[in-house]
Amino acid sequence: QAQLVESGGGSVQPGESLTLSCAGSGGLNLDGYAVGWFRQAPGKEREGVSCIAPSGGTTNYGDFVMGRFTISRDNAKKTVYLQMNSLKPDDTAVYYCNAPGGYWGQGTQVTVSS
Do 9 and 95 meet the contact criterion of CB atoms below 8 Å apart? Predict the structure, then answer.
């Protein structure tokens, strides 16, 4: 079954960093697709975090990112990354990746707390 698989979440303290990964599995090849990262905090709607063009040459970020996150991709490894620095408690959420065709991963939990 074609699907996206996220990994890399965890519990960190404010100011620390995490790198999330999103890979296609079951025959889902991310080459040629734009990929987006979204997040959903408890009691809040899902919001866009970042997205990257198929070539990796164009990226976009939510206003709240303010230069703290970097999205990238390694098409040879069929993986998209989200490097998150200077994490804040407000970044606590389940992070999902998304690809065209309605593909969503199962999500990975990020918890930022002192």
Answer: yes
How far CA 109 is from CA of 10, 19, 24, 74, 113, in Å, comes to 6, 12, 19, 23, 13
Q: CA-CA distance, 47 to 37, in Å (whole number)? A: 9
Neighbouring residues of 86: CB distance < 8 A, sequence distance ≥ 6: 15, 17, 68
Question: How does strand 10-12 pair with strand 108-112?
Answer: parallel
- List, for residues 43-79, the tens digit of each pLDDT value: 999 999 999 999 888 999 999 999 999 999 998 898 9
Residue 62 neighbours by CB distance under 10 Å: 15
CB 34 within 8 A of CB 57: no
The answer, yes or no, to whether residue 25 has pLDDT greater than 90, is no
